Amino acid sequence: MAEAVTFKNMALAKAINESLRRALDSDPKVLIMGEDVGKLGGVFRVTDGLQKDFGESRVIDTPLAESGIVGTAIGLALRGYRPVVEIQFDGFVFPAYDQIVTQLAKMHARSLGKVKLPVVVRIPYGGGIGAVEHHSESPEALFAHVAGLKVVSPSNASDGYWMMQQAIQSDDPVIFFEPKRRYWDKAEVNTEAIPGPLHKAQVVREGTDLTLVAYGPMVKLCQEVADAAAEEGKSLEVLDLRSVSPLDFDSIQTSVEKTRRLVVVHEAPVFLGSGAEIAARITERCFYHLEAPVLRVGGYHAPYPPARLEEEYLPGLDRVLDAVDRALAY
Amino acid sequence: MTVESTAARKPRRSAGTKSTAGKRTTAKNAPGTDPELVQLLTPEGERLKNPENAAYDKYVADITPDELRGLYRDMVLTRRFDAEATSLQRQGELGLWASLLGQEAAQIGSGRATREDDYVFPTYREHGVAWCRGVDPANLLGMFRGVNNGGWDPNGNNFHLYTIVIGSQTLHATGYAMGIAKDGADSAVIAYFGDGASSQGDVAESFTFSAVYNAPVVFFCQNNQWAISEPTEKQTRVPLYQRAQGYGFPGVRVDGNDVLACLAVTKWALERARNGEGPTLVEAYTYRMGAHTTSDDPTKYRADEERESWEAKDPILRLRRYLEASNHADEGFFAELEAESEALGKRVREAVRAMPDPDHFAIFENVYADGHALVDEERAQFAAYQASFTDEGGH
Ligand SMILES: Cc1ncc(C[n+]2csc(CCOP(=O)(O)OP(=O)(O)O)c2C)c(N)n1
After folding, report:
1. Which pLDDT belongs to residue B72?
2. Which residues of chain A, if any, have pLDDT below 70?
């Protein structure tokens, strides 16, 4: 008899919640910290019910001070805890940026490997929810650029569940970007499965004509693009990177050697974004396989605009299809 | 003043100091240990005169009935505007609204204390202060509607843009005040922030800078008891106004639901600034009667009774009682104001509905003052892309 597996149909926010619950339950050193994470359960309810069940010493409402949140999490980690901190929105991580970049990222190296910092920084990120300023940004490249940090972003509930488990178990600091506009999207989560490695990309749709690479909020869009392209007889492969640092170049290379064309899609500004790194490396690795230059679709070199302009700013179906057409036209 | 000495003090008759434990996990102050609170008008509308408030009383001692009615009018119209914005959000005209309900006295009192050449640095809830500064209320709605990220010229009324990142503006205010001092001018700056924001490093740094450089700035903290779901106890273990002492400048707690006291205390603090006596921290002890914003659900974290206890201290009702008891206002005044409120609501509603969506190219506007080649390139690509649709649309 096969072992009973537990499949649940869950929204991404709920999957992360269940994952945090499991971590709190199985390791007394795991702590949740952040603004409004207690009674309110976070502004997106990702920590809903956790303080009720694990108490105020495990699920900690912090003062409104992001530098304080990350800085004290570092101290707690030095003392053997595994803090999972929540930054309320993408644009509010910057008061903590100093602590993350100058301390969290470098302390392991500075201590010649003696100190481990198993801190997870959760950041709901990205646009598409009609919010006001600082609530819709995609700053992942700013973190991926810093050595010593790992940067990941799940695109679906199953990854939300499992990647959070893996991030908490990691002895390195992990910046965990949660695509807020996908929080309410449901998917099957097998809570007993043995997950693949945290930093391995996943082919979420097979195809032969072109590879679309994305992560976080843009994976679903790319799947829709592939559906639309299929109607026009084009076969697109969609790769969910899952991790921005490290980046799984091997998986991208394998796919590009098959399809010979690559379009990278992210919400963050294109200029010096993660797509730039992917384009450069893949050009280096796959120069003789490529039939077209690697194209990128993303945000502009402009501040994230007010809500009524975000549809123009964010990559949508048409913009990605346009890039697909351009790549195929070479 | 130490916490101990405060604890030894006799409780005095005041609004807003009773700790309503509600759903809170930690009690703020044991009964009878409330710190002093400057109050000039009781919740019942009685004018208080006592030795403790005498130092501030002189700033409103010669206030005219006309000015008193003006303060009342400001509060009523601000509340009406706020209510209109809340309902416009419910009707889908605004994406979000941060209501000031309950904080009218703190904002009108402090706002009316400022002089035209003073400079104001607000957070995102200072609709009443904006009103005092002569900013068209409709202008405040653009960012909440999602058509811009600001929407007014800060130098038009010396009222800076709203700041969403908690606490940032306190440093800008301090720097601006340092500039005033360098210029030898006698204007002053006032910076608004919340009790939650008081935990931010930026706020601590602004206290440090303003003290060290003796900057003419008034820090006006509206302690409305909550930072979204977190009560003030999650930010501090001592009354906030006492923080100032550690930086070397005075801090005072004022009844934030008493418009006269807020006016008097802020005038005092601004005068200190103008006289070269440096910064002051004013803690206006008040209450956020509504949700944090229209996205928030306060029933998850606070008890209804708490709000009810604060309704009894309503800033508008309080002044109305005083105006009536002192015969400074008659029925005609209140009726006229009611009509004016309705007209304001209507005007704001119409202004919002008429607010056009921004031009798509606004994305690329004002990214740099000097221009930038990459922005030009992307704008051109964007234009070509937009045009490709128009062509396909085919007429
Ligand atoms: C740096 C930063 N962190 C978090 C937030 C999200 N946030 C917006 S308002 C708020 C609560 C602020 O409380 P308080 O300072 O007391 O002011 P109030 O809203 O009560 O007037 C929080 C946490 C933010 N805007 N900026």
Report:
1. 98
2. 1-5
Name the token pair of B266. 């802020």
Residue in B235, B317, B323 with CA at minimum distance from that of residue B283 = B235
Rg of chain A on CA atoms, in Å = 20
Q: What are phi and psi of B281, to 5 degrees?
A: -105, 120
Chain-centroid distance, C-alpha B53: 23
Strands B226-227 and A295-299: unpaired
The pLDDT of residue B29 is 40
Burial of A197 (0-12, 13-18, 19+ CB in 10 A): exposed
How buried is B384 (Cβ within 10 angstroms: 0-12 exposed, 13-18 middle, 19+ buried)? exposed
CA distance A76 to B183: 47
Q: Who contacts B114 (Cβ-Cβ below 8 Å, separation ≥6)?
A: B120, B132, B133, B188, B190, B266, B270
The CA–CA distances, whole Å, from B95 to A91, A134, A202, A271, A306 equal 18, 14, 36, 29, 11
Nearest to B253 by CA among B21, B27, B76, B28: B28
Look at residues A180, A92, A107, A90 and name the one whose alpha carbon lies nearest to residue A141. A90
Residue B392: pLDDT band (50, 70, 90) is low
Q: What Cα–Cα distance (Å) separates residue A312 from each residue in A60, A135, A185, B84, B217?
A: 39, 17, 23, 30, 41
Q: Whole-angstrom Cα distance, residue B277 to residue B147?
A: 42
Q: Report the C-alpha gap between B263 and B265 in whole angstroms.
A: 6
Give the pairing type, strands B189-194 and B217-223.
parallel
Chain-centre distance for alpha carbon A25: 24
For the residues of A308-323, what is the DSSP string, one character each? Answer: GGHHHHS--HHHHHHH
DSSP string of A152-216, one letter each residue: E---SHHHHHHHHHHHHH-SS-EEEEEEGGGTT-EEEEETTS-PPPTT--EEEE--SSEEEEE-T
CB of B192 shorter than 6 A to ligand 1: no
Does B73 score more than 80 pLDDT?
A: yes
Task: Please tell me the pTM assigned to this model.
Answer: 0.93
* Residues of chain B contacting A39 with CB distance shorter than 8 Å: 23, 229, 300-301
* pLDDT (tens digit per residue) in B251-289: 999 999 999 999 999 999 999 999 999 999 999 999 999
Mean pLDDT of the B365-381 span: 97
Nearest-angstrom CA–CA distance, B13 and B18: 10
- How far apart, in Å, do the first and last CA atoms of chain B sit? 77
- Quote the CA–CA distance of B135 and B343 in Å, as a whole number: 17
Distance in Å, alpha carbon of B324 to nearest chain A alpha carbon: 42
Q: Do B228 and A40 touch (CB under 8 A)?
A: yes
Is A61 at the interface with chain B, CB within 8 A? yes
Question: Phi and psi for B110 in degrees, rounded to 5?
Answer: -70, -40
**A217, A210, A240, A241: which is closest to A324 by C-alpha?**
A210
> How distant is the alpha carbon of residue A125 from its chain centre?
8
Q: Does B56 have pLDDT greater than 60?
A: yes
Distance B115 CA to ligand 1 centre (A): 28
Single-letter amino acid code for the residue at A322: D
